[in-house]
Amino acid sequence: MSTRENSLASVTSDTLSSFSMRLRKMSTASALNINPISDSRVSRKFLQPNMASDWVERAAERVRRLDDWYGVVKRQLMIHQNAATGLFPCNLAKAPNEAHVRDSVYCAAAIWALSLAYRKQDDDQGRTYELGQSTVKCMRGILACWMQQADRVEQFKHSQSAKTALHSKFNIKTGAIVVGDGEYQHLQIDCVAQYVLFLVQMISSGLQIIYTTDEVNFVQNLVYYLERAYRTPDYGMWERGTKYNNGNSELHASSIGMAKAALEAINGFNVFGDSGASWSVIYVDVDAHNRNRTIFDSMLPRESNSKNTDCSLIPVVSWPAFALHDENLRQRTIDKAVRKLKGTSGMKRFLRDGYGTVVEDKSRKYYRPAEIKNFDGIECEWPLFFLYMIIDGIFKNDQEKVKQYMELVKPLLAFTPDGVIVPKYFYVPLDLVDAEKEKPGSQMREPSAEEDTGHLFLWGQAVYIISQLLFEGLVLRSELDPAKRHLQAHARPRHSLRYSFFQGTANDLIVQIVLIAESVRLQQMLANYGILTQTPHEIEPIQVWSPNELTKAFSYLGINNKLGLTGRPLRPVGGLGTSKLYQVCGHIVVCFPLLFELSDFYLSQDMTYVIDDVKSDLAFLAKCWKLSGRPTFCMLIREENIRGPSTKEFLDLLAEFKGGQVGDIRVRLGRLQSLIPAACIENLDFLQSLIEDSECTFRHVEELKLGSSFKSLTEIPKVVPEEDIAINIEELKQLSSRDIVQKLHGFDNMHAQSQILGVLLEREGMEYRIDDSTIEQRLERLLRNSGRKKNWAVVRYCAALLGKLVDSLAPSITAILVRGKQVTIGVFGHEEDVIGKPMAPNQIKDIIYSKCMPYSISQAVLQQEIILCIGKFISTFPELFSGILKIRIGWMIEAMRLEIANLEGTELSLMALSPSEIKEVLLTVLGKYDRSIPKRAPLHKRQLDGALGRVPIDFYDRVWEILEKTPGGIKVAGYLLPQQPTLSDMTMYEMNFSLLVEQMLSKILDPAYRSVIVETLTVVSTILRRNPEIEFPAAVELDRIVHEAFEMFKRELVVHESKEKEDTTKDNMFVFYNTPPNARRGTMCYIVKAVLNTLLQGAIHTKEDDNCCVS
């Protein structure tokens, strides 16, 4: 530390005294209850008698301080800005010709902050303009680099692939590619989001950065690039992906949060600033924003599966993103980061971070397995995050926090004649590594070489400058955040009344409902029951659009042929988007939700399911609506909706609408024209020129002209169910195709027809013609007819043969994954495929059909139903999934089959149940109705728990403790969970360790046996906790322990039970499974004895001089 001490001794007295004076001012102000960091100008009337001279003195001091900071910015930042591209180098020492977008944006932000401070000077000597244009130069330089990669944006918005991601690094002189996709991890969602966020802030302050229509279109496509951040695993702020640094990406809360903040900021924003026109406004998919928001909130305070916390979350929940306004969750996130990562010299990026440590092998790009154990306790500490905490304290008006971190950061800085230098990090020297590991925090860390080499860490310098400009009051919070991101949503300024605006959810939100009947006949019939509706003709000139037409309209947004950019990808518009009204070329358009679209999938044919979804959609709107104005729910009623057994239930729902309350949700039913003033209205100005030039046309819903009106529901034709006819498939396959077609003509029964068509399809393919239609066309007709007659087994079979895919499958998978779960696809008893990362719908479809079709054709669509239900349940009833880490869809279906067999006493087919009945059975299996059903037998409970994969709360912690005492690992079903590198690579509370334990348990094929294995692990853990001196020299073989417990159970059964019962136990374990675990002579008793026998047989040993005492 001698070099550092010499630097401190040689620093100019002015710099040191200035820094100390600022701290003294803050202490004095705090004692006098004065806020020196408030935006408001604090009157000094009672402190200074001569106000005029005081004002002159303060003004002069302000000019001196601004000039000092101008010199610092010129010497430390602007000197490194490339004259041609405007970019800044990311590593002056090792790669002076490489510019990183993130570092460049922070440098631009620091220069911009100083330009804001100079704006208040009457004679700024041209510095406001100079600094502002330097900022513009950098932001436009980044934009120019990315526009050269417009083809990657076009590909990425469809695929979200790392191979097509925008580059994060460029050649500082030319803006050209500097490292390829295989050499560097370019996929960093937070980087693009940060650029968009600062773009909005800087334009809001008056800078002109976007010049042309081409650039407007490109920025719109950057929004599309960000909208799917919630399902895009990336490499995060530290560019390494998982903490193992093995080349794998993962979902990062910091990336999702930054994207969410950027989408909020730019929605309805005019990128031309105050001089902009309607065609320079940027639009955001409100449903994509909501998915990012909910998934971001659900991940916090965790950063990712491999990182329990991370300092990258601090700039996301605080400045500059302010992505979270739930103060409790925000504070929990910051507190956890501080508690886990704070040191004396800064904060660790994350636990076991090897970057910058002396033991890291810098010759290799990736780490070896278990290598991160070497970095445990010696991670580098970064002063940068103390600076973020200072800024957070200023924005939160927390003087104690600002003072605390100013005091902490002061001894870490290097004071030189050229200004203060912020070290990049502090590391543990090689000769102190062992001592630091033995006693964390005991050794003095050394700073990285910025001070000695003069190669500054520009990101840190930029944040330091911003923090001090704020601290000294030279720039105000409101100036640094002109978009008012630090305020609650309702307090932020609105860009324009023509476009939607995020303002938060009102406490007394009312959902507006308008009922549109497809015909006058239906309208008159509903009127007889007191239900008032409107027809499409009655609401003219207002038009009713389907969500598909709205999707088509947005597909024209952002098109640019010169750049090769198409518009918005053809993704369905969600429930929030369809709850806005739209102004299109003078017409008001109302859109009904996707739920009422005539879908290829069959769920809409079950009215009970639809009614339940309507209620769920209303609850979703009440919870997630964040826009100005009220949501408007348009319900398009068709005659087919009131046919079948659910008609009364449907009318009851309409009556609830009329009463103004659906459950806990307040609704207002009315005529559409009267609901418009309170609605949220979005102007689609970008369509104006297209429609005028006849480049696009849109179809609206028209009133159906039907015959005479029905007087009541009794006059509507009812559905008559039919019984299934069994077909011998094997005999059918022996016939020729011509004979099979003759068989088909001989059957009117839908079940028989579906089976015959299935055989023909397998043999001849979809295009094989039967009379005047193909097999595909016949299957489609049969699907519709069986749906009308509620023959769900035939519906599912036909849908699977046709390869149907349900909407919202990918978001449902993502909703499951971000809550720390995994999903496996496959039929029970057969191979499964694990989905651990979000995927595109077609990828999920390929997995489902490849894993299900060979073993159970109908499960290919039933598993989609289950995924959709779980995606909803895990958001609304997360407690149902407590103790379930891996959701195995095939095993979940097996649990439902077991439940039906247990309740009904018969093998009722799941396939014959309606989608709404499937949902109810699933809820029952998950325990939603535990209080209302009889107590389950031990066998049935074990089967359900095993099939669901449910384990006790602290189960994974217990397995970790066993593994610590077991060098040979844990073995079950032929699978070995090794002690190393598991313990070296992971931590006890890490999500990936729990998933590894689940991977071991997934090798067990019997659900009940899985439950017994879980019980056995709990017993072993309890013994180890009570006898900490015990160690296992060999692998713990769980199968052997359970087998021995079962043998003891059988022997004692002979003594206590009848001979007949012994006979039934010889060849199976069902009686053992059906025995309660904790009862007298329960299974737990025998498992404990088996473990103790293992002890006595010498399979485990104790440490020397220790006595083993099993209690």
The value of Rg in angstroms is 33 Å
Tell me the fraction of residues in β-strands, as a range.
5-15%
Terminal residue distance: 55 Å
Stretches with pLDDT under 50, minimum 5 residues: 1-47, 1105-1111
Give helix % range.
40-55%
Structural class: alpha/beta
Count up the domains: 5
CATH architecture of the largest domain: Alpha/alpha barrel
Number of helices: 43
Strand order of the largest sheet: 12-8-14-13
The shape is globular
CATH fold topology of the largest domain: Glycosyltransferase
Largest sheet: 4 strands, mixed
The tally of strands reads 25
Summarize, please.
This protein is α/β, with parallel strands linked by helices and 1111 residues long. It is 46% helix and 7% strand. The chain has five domains: 76-489, Glycosyltransferase; 511-692, no CATH class; 729-790, no CATH class; 791-934, no CATH class; 955-1102, no CATH class.
Structural notes for this entry:
There is one protein chain. By secondary structure, the chain is an alpha/beta fold. It has 5 domains: 414 residues, Glycosyltransferase, CATH 1.50.10; 182 residues, no CATH class; 62 residues, no CATH class; 144 residues, no CATH class; 148 residues, no CATH class. Helix content is 46%, strand content 7%. The protein has 43 helices and 25 strands. The strands form 9 sheets. It has a 4-stranded mixed beta sheet. A 4-stranded mixed beta sheet has the order 9-11-10-15. A hairpin with a 2-residue loop joins β21 and β22. α39 packs across α40. The protein is globular, with a radius of gyration of 33 Å. The two termini are 55 Å apart.
